DNA sequence: TTCTTCTATAGGTTATACTAATATAGCATT
DNA sequence: AATGCTATATTAGTATAACCTATAGAAGAA
């Protein structure tokens, strides 16, 4: 008979409004929001509520607060996922290897899609990275080796053009580095037969440039499984 | 050469302390935090700062605020990723199909791992779901069909025991449902040859119960690619 | 016992005052 | 003309106090 009154929290309303303004294109990346006081008066709520909303938007990576300047829609939202993934990792600390399996999921699909979508320009870039990688593979410097290795995998993700894949891979890498320090270097040291790694990279590369998506995926899986077994 | 001076915001300190208490095991899932006023006095900061910290922790899904009761460490953090993924989706609205490729990434790996880790009990459960699915496939009700279809895929993710995979799949499903309403029903309607779907599900099932991870992965990919093409 | 009401305490919201960082403009020195 | 300084306005960051609202549990009434 009697209808219940509204319930939603004020700060939730504020979050919603700002999100909508972004969806509708009123606010774009890099734009500055009205000042907290102005927002408060425009929405007719207290500045505290505005701030709680802004704080939330900041944590999920949507805006950036700069004291003395204002609140801005983030240009680069590549780290959006990092915090939540870290949280999941925290509660999952018994099984850190799970993150490695997630990485395989992403990278295998990345290789598959890359083989389908690779352009001529991509092929050249990928070839360059591979050449550099093979060159330093014979020298001693682990760090440089790790750098190009990372670049190779990252480039493949880039070729897919899939924002989620690029982003997830980035975040997984960050997470791995935070928790398993120097993971990559350790892995590379653990693998005795360096030429095996070179060979695997080349197989992946060849599959991608010949648009053989199935093979690209399975070679990538083979490559990452090898690395995983050495990590355990 | 010159190092920047410290700056950290007060609420960031608060967040850090609470996170550390969780990592160190002082606070466990379901535990109640001290009241806001008590936290404020214990940490010697204002309640405003405490609240901004708590609000942030709430948004990333770490705690839950219940008015009149208190703030609690979340029991079930399955929705942790949803918000950030939505944000990414917002900025990526030109290419909604990217989420489908991410889904393939997750599910292909899920099938691969499931084939390796499946137990006898899992096999029975999966078989039951498959039987129900085949049964309703011939009847008309799309909704029930969609329900069991979803259950089949979810069970495979569950078998992996990988928290990230289960969680990501959940979130991707939510996201798909939010943005592509009734996606699953639409897909099922679009695929003329129902028996093809049955056949694909059975191939995946057989690969998993015979521990053939390679085949499980490739059949799963085939299955999802078919669905994707019908969605575009 | 069962139901209602009261009460203490929790989070939710507002208002106000102050602190700290930043950009800008204007002025002075060189 | 370039640099350095200072005052000022504007912004976010923090603190405090008061009050609103939801909840659980105690107290009381039936």
Give a written overview of the molecule.
Two copies of one chain form a homodimer. With 232 residues, chain A is mainly α. Chain A contains eleven helices and two strands. In chain A, strands 1-2 form a two-stranded antiparallel ribbon. In chain A, strand 1 and strand 2 (70-73) form a beta hairpin. Chain A starts with 9 loop residues before the first helix and ends with a helix. The mean pLDDT of chain A is 86. Chain B binds a DNA duplex (30 and 30 nucleotides) through residues 9-11, 35-37, 40, 45-49, 51-52, 54, 65-71.
Main traits of this protein?
homodimer, 232 residues, mainly alpha, Arc Repressor Mutant, subunit A, Four Helix Bundle (Hemerythrin (Met), subunit A), 2 domains, two-stranded antiparallel sheet, 11 helices, 71% helix, 3% strand, elongated, DNA-binding
CATH architecture of the largest domain in chain A: Up-down Bundle
Report the radius of gyration of chain A as a whole number of Å: 23 Å
Strand percentage of chain A lies at under 5%
Q: What order do the helices and strands of chain A follow?
A: HHHEEHHHHHHHH
Question: Secondary-structure map with pairings?
Answer:
The structure is a homodimer of 232-residue chains.
Chain A: H1 10-23, H2 36-43, H3 47-59, E1 63-66, E2 70-73, H4 82-91, H5 97-117, H6 120-138, H7 142-160, H8 163-179, H9 183-190, H10 194-209, H11 213-231
Antiparallel strand pairs in A: 1-2
Helix pairs in contact in A: 1-3, 2-3, 4-8, 5-7, 5-8, 5-10, 5-11, 6-7, 6-10, 7-8, 9-11, 10-11
Chain B binds a DNA duplex (30 and 30 nucleotides) through residues 9-11, 35-37, 40, 45-49, 51-52, 54, 65-71.
